[in-house]
Every structure is written in C-alpha cells, then in structure tokens.
C-alpha cells in the first residue's frame, strides 16, 4: 500500500524542511512525495535535493493557487492512498503506519481523516470532534481539513480535480474550502470515510492574536466556507446554524469587552453569509 503525498508550497523554507524531516522519519516507508513548487526562486529545489536520497520525491511547478498546484500533483499520483500535507504541517513518525493499518484492516473504508494539533499536542485549526465516526456532510466541518485527509486513489479519481476557484491563491473571492468541497464530492460519489481523533497531524495554530492579518484571513476563509455551503446546497437549518455560532461568539466577546475578538467573529458571520449567497 503506497502513499502519494502532494505538497503544494509557496513562500516557505524552514517549514517545508521540517515537513520533509518528519517524512524522512516515518516508520512506514512506502511513499512518494510530489512537490509542486509555486516560488520563482530555487528555495524548494535546494530542499528537495537535500532529501532526495531519503525518499522518492517528484518535483513539479505550477502557477500560483493551492488548488491549481494540487491538480498538477494529482497527474503524477502512483500510490494507493493520496494525501495533501500542507507545507507548514508535519507528521509524527507513526502517521503513515497508522493510516495504512486502518485502511488495510477495513476494506470498506475509502478514506480516513484525523484532527490537527500544534507543537504541544493541543488541538489547532478549529474545532474537532472527540469521537470516532463516519464522516457525513454535517460533521465534516469538525472532522477534516486538507492535511488530515487520506483517500484511496480510486476515490480521488472519482472526483477528478480540485475546484480551482476555491482556496488560497485562487484569485477568486473564496479563499478556503477546496478540500472540504473535494471530500464532499468523493462522498457523493459513494466514498466511505471515517474520522478518527487518534490520527493527529501537527500544524501551528494560525489564530494566535486578533490583528489585521487575522481579520484578512478570516474574510477569505469564511467566505470560502460559505461558498462551499452554497455549492453543495446545504439546507437552511444548517446554514443558519453555521452563521449563528460565530454570531454568538461576536456578542459574547462584545459583552466581555473583547473588541478585537468580537470583530473577528463578526467578520466570520458576515463573510460566511456573503460566500453562501454569492452566485458569481
């Protein structure tokens, strides 16, 4: 059972080096890394050269855009399991072994997802379910993010490609949600995917403070969230639920006098609404 790990990268060196070091330390060795470089310099090439004797690495280039880069990587997949590690995430030594073991032991599963933790083992990048379950269109939002998704290649082929209008660097108004949209498409085509919180991939918590950078990220990501709700025709009750959570956070933060946090939650609420209602 071979893994194909598609890594789209832009603007990072130290983080990519950390990811590669974690891959070189995997106890499970049957994998290939497909690196899709979106930089104009040779920073990635130097890292690839340094690790090329420790693992199989295919080097590719693409125009900017996370979904575009992943689509370039998908063309070279030779493995049985496909994953999409971020260039600033990293794997514990047993991650690939864990996934391979679960998928080998249960042929009914087409994929496995896990949760995100920071360098200290604390949950990062949003809310995560505490229980193992099959992923559906409602619990997917607390059960998957791009770098915690592992899919059999047959399920990936049923989807084809990522929507290049979604995601970071797309040039559109929708700066996130491409991986959830992809996973939803796979499940619509019949894929059975299980979430297991014991599967943990490390990634820094991006929301360290509520500043202009966080507000800008909040606009892009939440508008993408809303767009995916619209594309996938989520019912009214779930759309309202998705809007009400950050709205409650906005009001509670305001009552506590935490203006910056309140502003962030307002951005989340309003941008989700804009993304959902945007038919552009």
Task: Please sum up the structure shown.
The chain has helices spanning 14-24, 43-51, 66-74, 95-105, 153-159, 178-188, 212-231, 236-255, 259-277; strands at residues 3-9, 31-37, 56-61, 81-83, 111-117, 133-134, 149-152, 193-202. The protein has 280 residues and is an alpha/beta fold. The protein has two domains: 3-202, Spore Coat Polysaccharide Biosynthesis Protein SpsA, Chain A (Alpha-Beta Complex); 212-277.
Structural notes for this entry:
There is one protein chain. The chain is of the alpha/beta class and 280 residues long. The protein folds into two domains: 3-202, Alpha-Beta Complex (Spore Coat Polysaccharide Biosynthesis Protein SpsA, Chain A), CATH 3.90.550.10; 212-277. The chain has nine helices and eight strands. The protein has helices at residues 14-24, 43-51, 66-74, 95-105, 153-159, 178-188, 212-231, 236-255, 259-277; strands at 3-9, 31-37, 56-61, 81-83, 111-117, 133-134, 149-152, 193-202. The longest helix has 20 residues, at 212-231.
